[in-house]
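Hi X.,

You mentioned you wanted examples for the new student's onboarding notes, showing what a folding record looks like when two proteins sit in one file. Here is a clean example. The first protein comes first, with its sequence line followed by its structure tokens.
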Amino acid sequence: MERPGLWQALSEENPLQIVGTINAYTALLAQQAGYRAIYLSGGGVAAASYGMPDLGITNLCNVADDVFRITDICDLPLLVDIDTGWGSVFNIARAIKTLIKAGAAGAHIEDQVQAKRCGHRPKKELVETEEMCDRIKSALDAKSNKNFVVMARTDALAIEGLEKTIERIHRYVEVGADMIFFEGATTLDQFRTVTHACSVPILANITEFGVTPLFMRDELQQVGVQLILYPLSAFRAMSATALKVYNTIRAQGTQRPLLPEMQTREQLYDVLHYHQYEQKLDELFAQGKEK
């Protein structure tokens, strides 16, 4: 049975809210909360799985491992961050083929140089437009699933300005990009200008503590944005809470004050369908005793 894709999710919800899930369990939580699409951040893989900064240090295998863990347990369409593609056009093609085999629904590839930086940090550098077009074409040529989304991300706004960014976006769409990830916008007018100029869906990255204000869903819908990404919201909250727990236990010698903030054992079991697994074990053991 074919997995649902991003296009299907977008047809059911517009704008489509896509939340970051750093592992399989958070993917299940997002599914329980009613989301129709989820996301694996490159920065999230680096930080959560490897304890490294978002500077293009992790590789295809690192990301693919987390992709498989998520898609193996959750059937929501998963959009994956592949940074600059991890090398030449051959590396990009290999990345796309690997992600499709791992069950991803789409990937976004960016126009920064190989030694990339976080999109909300200074000193970013871009490749030439034609080099980025080659990246997109390589990704498209590698598609073995017609529904797999190749999304082109551009970080050009902070470096070249809005007019040049739109020129880049037009070229990326001309060579076949399915969707555009417009990074680093600071105003709703910028989003409005880009959505009016572009013939494919635009994604807004609404990440905390960056250069883009935390615009509301309805505000973004009014300016034509069709996909809204919250890449690391849950991870940031989880990390802050984890540190609070560690500090409290260390200082007070107990976790008792924190119990009201914790997920209960039964809530965990509910997400994992734990009792159904136990019931299956009981049935198997009962059958064995009957023999």
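Then the second protein repeats the pattern, sequence line and then tokens:
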Amino acid sequence: MNAYEEFMQSVYKPMREQLVANGFTELTTASEVEEKMEGLEGTAIIVINSVCGCAAGQARPAVIEAIQEAEHAPTHLLTVFAGQDKEATARMRDFFPEVEPSSPSIALWKDGKLAHFVPRDDIEINEKETIKAHLVEVFNQVVAK
């Protein structure tokens, strides 16, 4: 690894650790994504993580707080890092081709299919509290059924 790559890894590390420290499984390769998604039972929240400000200020904190506050939270907490783990991110996006790729974004997976999706556009224009409240409502409606 050259000095630039080493520096960039140190920059991204806290962004990765924020979700992992809150119970998320980080998938870094396409094969890890396939292994986890194929035959996944129950519900999963999937965060397509990124380095942008709306990921740091809105998406990651909103998802973490929504999971803590929802009466019915998803069973599986998964994340891939767009721009860093490109093959893992591309493979994850293959599971929901009906939505345009965006990062950050938040997907709710249930019964082998996409149940809800929050794209970057909806993250950028909303405050963390609004996103959190929306996710809590979605979790309590979709996960509970």
